[in-house]
Amino acid sequence: MVGYSEISAIRLGYGLGPGITAPASAAELIAEIAASAPDSRSISMEQIEALRLEYVDIVRKTRESGGADRSAIQAARKKSTLMARVADQTRLARAVGGGVGFGERLVQFWADHFTVTGGSNAFNAAMASALVEEAIRPHLTGSFADMMYAAETHPRMLTYLNQVRSFGPHSVAARKRPDKNLGLNENLAREMIELHSLGVDADYTQKDVRQLAKLLTGLTYNFRDQRRFRPTMAEPGPETVLGHSYGVSRWGSIRDVRAVIEDLARHPATANHIARKLAVHFVADDPPQNLVERLAVIFRETEGNLSALYDELARAPELTGHFRAKVRQPFDFVVAALRAVGVGHDEIMALPPQQLIARVIRPMTAMGQKWQMPRGPDGWPEAAEAWATPQGLAARIDWSTRQLPKLVGPLPDPRKMLQDCLADTASEPLAWAVPKAETALEGLGVVLGSADFNRR
């Protein structure tokens, strides 16, 4: 029988390690989530926009001077790249350090639910991190509706899904510039319904998607301007989405956007969709239906109170019944491995940026999970087959034996490490094999390459 401390650390958190005290009860585990709230380490859009304005000004002045000296542009680019890297480093350090990490696992879960990518430049990468800090962490224990509104209206979501280029066909802007062929973009509307709320199999139509897209016109972003809604881009209303009418004022408003998001967030289909996603992520690829139904009921009865969902999940007997039913994704694996060998928050923050890239970020690409670059707006896959591939597992072992040792002092004794990271959950074959390792490095590979460690 696996104890609650091991369940909370391995199934719900980022794993055990030397010096990590796992909660003895669900109440202790839930209390730990508060540590994942935003703090002074969080990157903000205000910081990003200030740096971007500075960069644009430098580029303008360089061009005006004939462009002979481009060193100032290069320096500004390095500054923006460093800003994005520090944000990555901070997020990794928060996952590695402190407590069991249920809060940080939830941050990762919701960041994947409201997927954006880092894109092709440092500003977009920083904005993707800012979405996590500004839309996910502040609402981690609040209502799903508040988190959804914050995520859907965040600048990185608006740019990633091309909402900034969505114009109402009969908007003032479209009518003034007919030669520009300004039109409707349905990306955000579709993902709001299919991925972020009701789910792809829910009862909605293409007409609902298009009506929502029209309602969202006017919702936009420009780093030079703090306004998030431009009435001149908006399609004259009203629009009807899932039988409800919005945008009754002539040009719509941000209040209409808020209203439709709140209705989507509290829709019964959303309760089912979110309940299943949580159960799949934390319990099993094919989750027990009883757990899904219990979570869905709580979601409906509390109108999406996330703390209530976590409480049910943390107490679920299915966590024990389906132990090791999930394969750790590469980020999960890397964080758990760092914790297993005693690397903590301060050691990660002390890494020079280039070492962070070479020894942590880039190896995750080889494992199949390129940092901040999921293949689509549906985020990373959950199924074991996506991660337990020959190439992916080989990359994990390669990282464990070539890069991880460079991040830690003397390697731990494998027998102690086995006890530190898996406690009494290690299987008999693994417990037999580890003491047979001839070197600490070999023992490290045996533990981190095992099915016991790669599953939670």
TrEMBL record:
Name a Pfam family for this protein: DUF1800
Q: Which superkingdom, per the lineage?
A: Bacteria
Record-given protein name: Uncharacterized conserved protein, DUF1800 family
